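Dear support,

I submitted the protein below through the web form. The confirmation email said the job was done, but the results page showed an empty box. After a refresh the structure appeared. I'm attaching both so you can tell me whether what I see now is the final result or a partial one.
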Amino acid sequence: MSSSDWLAKQFEENRGHLRAVAYRMLGSVSEADDAVQEAWLRLSRSDANSIENLGGWLTTVTARVCLDILRSRTSRREESLEAQVIEPTPQQQGSPDPEQEAQMAESVGLALLVVLDRLTPAERLAFVLHDIFSISFDEISTIVGRSADATRQLASRARRRVQGATVEPDVDRVQQREIASSFLDALRRGDVEGLVAVLDPDVVVRIDHAAGRPDGPPLEIHGARKWAQQAVAFTRFARFVQLALIDGRVALILAPGGRLSSVLQFTATNGKIVGVDIVSEPARLRDLDLRILE
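What the results page shows now:
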């Protein structure tokens, strides 16, 4: 086997790991593949014989490429929220398979990808590499260009954003979760009666401009059965819905491909949902305090 063939074989053995790192860093299949390809190009131009730990070297290079991509996203964050399209669109030539994007996002966790997208590039890198892939802070510090202690602080800040503050068991939050879970289960089944059962008969659903009529006033829907019959039309998108904490309360997020599109915030009384606020406006979504629900 020639040295180039051996190097290619070693790279292929690491490709899966590198892709996993890059996807969690970037939240995009196509960008993750680009980052992995760039790592290969850099390896092919390097003196492989001088690399003691090839897997570690490739992980470091891939992480640096991802960090550069994250730092270059000056307008990308705006576009990712404002250009959300729920209805499927024709696939462009060379674009990633939407089903593959969905499977990757679901395997990682929709809520986690949404929260990671709100971190600074350095925080995201420190959290992903240390908390998910168990890479030492000494190694990560060389990538972000900070001391090990500063890098540890980056990961700590990110961890608080991802997991939220530690709180004592909250009876109200347990009830919120049960109600939201029942709603989501019924939505996934397309079960109108199941939705009606968890809704107050006089429930009021408020839908903002982005999710309702862009040129008109926010929509309001009154009545459990009326809204339940409309809600089941979105059953096919329920795979992209997940529980999360929004401003400290249990809510549902809609995040196709791990990109936040809408939030459903519930108000419940006596075990029934009496009010629902559906938020899709990008500015409002950015202001929400979103955390992972353990």
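Response: this is the final, complete result; the empty box was a page-load delay. The longest strand covers residues 199-207.
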